[in-house]
Amino acid sequence: MALRPTILNPLFTAADTLSGIGTRIAKLLEKLTGNRLIDLIWHLPNGVIDRRFAPKVGDAPAGRVCTLTVEVLAHSPPPNRASRLPYKVTCGDDTGRITLTFFHAQKDYLNQVLPVGETRVISGKIEVYDGQRQMAHPDHIVTEGQKEAIQRVEPIYPLTAGLSPKTLVKGIAGALDKLPDLPEWLDEAQIKRDTWPGWKDALLSAHHPDSLLDLDLSSPIRHRLAYDELLSNQLALAMVRMKAKRLSGRSIKGTGGLRSKVLAALPFELTGAQNRTLGEIDQDLADHTRMLRLLQGDVGSGKTVVALMTMLSAVETGGQAALMVPTELLAQQHLATLKPLCEACGVSIAFLSGRIKGKARDAILEEVRNGQTSILVGTHALFQKDVAFHDLMVAVVDEQHRFGVHQRLELANKGRGVDMLVMTATPIPRTLTLTAYGDMDVSRLDEKPPGRKPIDTRLVNLERLVETISAVQRAIKSGSKVYWVCPLVEESETSDLAAAEDRHRHLSQIIGENAVTLVHGRMKGPEKDAAMAAFADKESPNGPKVLVATTVIEVGVDVPEATVMIVEHAERFGLAQLHQLRGRIGRGDKASTCLLLYHAPLTETATARLNILRDTEDGFVIAEEDLKLRGGGEVLGTRQSGLPEFRLADLSVHADLLIMARDDTKLILDRDPDLKSDRGEALRTLLYLFEQDAAIQTLRSG
Ligand code: ADP
Ligand code: MG
Q1: pLDDT, tens digit, for every residue of 80-123?
Q2: Per-residue pLDDT tens for 355-403?
Q3: In the chain, N or C: fewer CB atoms in 10 Å?
Q4: Please, which residues have CB within 8 angstroms of residue 446's CB and are 6 or more apart in sequence?
Q5: Ligand nearest to the CA of 305
């Protein structure tokens, strides 16, 4: 990020450069929001305490936060150190008295901040105890001269254990002091119309709210800030896409000869959705611009065949195609599916992964280079430098969120005007699609291949664990395999692992040492693949029947004999994640069961969410409902979905702003594609501010 405008540099320095913030606090900040000034600045309050109410002591009502100016009258320490009674300090004014109470008090400290005979300003909630006014542990105790500083509306921030509000507020204030004046990147007319403040004013107001109204996500302040973030997102995506499209594409018009051979070899007909999608793809291919299309379809909706047909068009036109997938095992499964079909139509297909080395690798690379290989399937190995194609025309990227934008582009750069199809099994609501892909063309496989048995999904109280394990044993006896997914603990990967290890041990004791295997995120790739492969293996009768896992199985593997999915603490997962996990079963011809074990009591929302899952298997319905139910603060199941996480915008409230940002982006790039105008320059600053690296790269490489 060498080109970051210097005016932004102070915001990107570490928080521990602020006075009052040392290493310990910096660590806590890191956990809470991030440890740079910019992270503190994005950390907005979610509540307020109004301390402006400053009555006389005699008028101070119970239950309300008051700021009182009082004389300190007397200290009465508890009778002895061991006493559970509080330390009391009596204060008052000409209208009445109030007792300040302190538990575990330090006498010296209290004498220092509340010296008898002096006037002090205190702020906190008034309580009545035994008919007397009290204030337990006032939030503030200051001298009269400092009254201004506390008699105001105080923001309340989300905290983390060990971090005091005072320290955080001080840190944020320090960061806000460094806010630079930045050029306006929004359209002046728009700002006027919506009465939005400027960026800096908006931030200052967001951190110094006058009332709860200012915290409302629909306030002009929050709209402005959310819009900035969404605009940076849309602009970044559009720029990356524009760069890809600028390189002109090629018109690919397949003869259909190879496709028809494959169709004849397939034991099924294509579904309506597959045919419709192929129609959309064929138009893109025939066009002279490059294709950049997202294919969304639930697990099992038949994306692989669509990918193959797309690649065959390239081969029919005399070119090559590549299919890139995120893991070795998945790549091998794709190869196993595609190979017989390629043989049926006489197309040569090869496989490449990081584990193929030396002479074997050289031989594969040579055939790809000289065009003998028509279709190359593989992992990240495909976009490595020494991989060269004779004439790459079409690239397909499966489970594309596991790859960076750049990895995708690098693969595309291995050909001339390469048409790209990216596929995902994560169903995403339309608004969210926009944030993840911008205005990309989207096809949806919204119809399942016929003959699939519905999955019986049930919610089960975790207290019924013993019965659940018996059910698992019965399933194994009847020849089934079982996935057992362990709870996701947000705070720590270590505790994720501990939970999975415990369950593995427990199930091994009951079901048998060899029958249970464990896969988790800390395992190295080959180790993980080996464990998965053992579970997937049809041939070995003594192989593992139960796979205990953290969510690493999410993107993955086809095990038709797996008919049972158990998810522990289902209430902790995102709906999209649960849906994906469930998609691992129901792939064979036997009926499948998914048990969502929950920890009672469930909140109303949690119940509603899990019920959606019980009631439908349609990923798109699930995704839309999830977005609707998701309150602002609720944990999104985005960690695995590759969706951007916004810090200021909340799409359950700001979806309209997203559409505005998309339209604004179009106008901006139509008029000023290289961001060279004054507003363009300001927009560059916006991109840096929100760390839109991929877009910035396109600016730099021109
Ligand atoms: P995805 O990659 O979308 O999860 P796959 O492409 O692996 O799904 O397809 C899942 C299964 O459905 C495969 O066994 C595939 O052969 C089968 N299949 C695909 N299309 C059809 C169809 N039109 N009719 C019947 N079965 C199909
Ligand atoms: Mg697939």
Answers
A1: 877 788 999 999 999 999 999 999 888 899 999 999 999 999 99
A2: 999 999 999 999 999 999 999 999 999 999 999 999 999 999 997 777 7
A3: C
A4: 273, 297, 301, 618, 620
A5: 1
Pick the residue whose CA is nearest to atom 16 on ligand 1.
302
Which numeric CATH code is attached to 455-635?
3.40.50.300
- 305 or 429: which leads in pLDDT: 305
Average pLDDT, the chain: 89
Looking at residue 694, its pLDDT comes to 74
Rounded distance between C-alpha atoms, residue 287 and residue 249, angstroms: 8
Percentage of the chain lying above the pLDDT 70 cut? 94
Give the pLDDT of residue 488: 57
The label of the residue with tokens 């999410």 reads: 554
Strand order from edge to edge, sheet including 127-129: 127-129, 132-136, 96-102, 87-93, 65-76, 119-125, 140-142
Q: What is the mean pLDDT of residues 260-280?
A: 96
Amino acid residing at 341:
L
> How far apart are the C-alpha atoms of 669 and 345, rounded to whole Å?
44
Q: Which helix (H) or strand (E) holds 595?
A: strand 592-598
Going from N- to C-terminal start, the domains of the chain cover 52-151, 184-246+653-702, 257-426, 455-635
Phi, psi of 608 (to 5 degrees): -60, -40
Would you say the CATH fold of 455-635 matches that of 257-426? Answer: yes
Give buried/exposed letters for 7-31 (b at 16+ CB in 10 A, else e): eeeebeeebbebeebeeebbebbbe
* Residue 342 CA, ligand 1 centroid: distance in Å: 16
Which one of the ligands is nearest to 325 CA?
2
> Where do runs of H (alpha helix) occur along 438-555?
465-477, 493-511, 525-536
Q: Which residue has the least CA distance to atom 22 on ligand 1?
A: 449
Q: Name the closest ligand to CA 323.
A: 2
CA of 396 to the centre of ligand 2 (A): 11
> What mean pLDDT is predicted for residues 279-306?
91
pLDDT at 310: 98
User: For ligand 1, atom 20, which residue shows the shortest CA distance?
Assistant: 302
The yes/no answer on whether domain 52-151 falls in CATH 2.40.50.140 is: yes
Taking CA atoms, 538 is separated from 528, 542, 618, in Å, by 18, 10, 29
Q: Rounded to an integer, what distance in angstroms lies between the CA atom of residue 636 and that of residue 461?
A: 23
Chain centroid to Cα 125, Å, comes to 38
CA of 302 to the centre of ligand 1 (A): 3
CATH number of the domain located at residue range(s) 257-426 in this protein = 3.40.50.300
How many Å apart are CA 557 and CA 229, to the nearest integer?
A: 36
| Residue whose C-alpha is closest to residue 303's, from 334, 280, 340, 347 | 334
Rounded CA-CA distance 399/324 in Å is: 9
pTM (global) more than 0.85: no
Distance 424 CA to ligand 2 centre (A): 8
Taking only the tens place, the pLDDT of each residue in 644-688 is 678 999 887 888 999 999 999 999 999 999 999 999 999 999 999
CA distance 545 to 479: 9
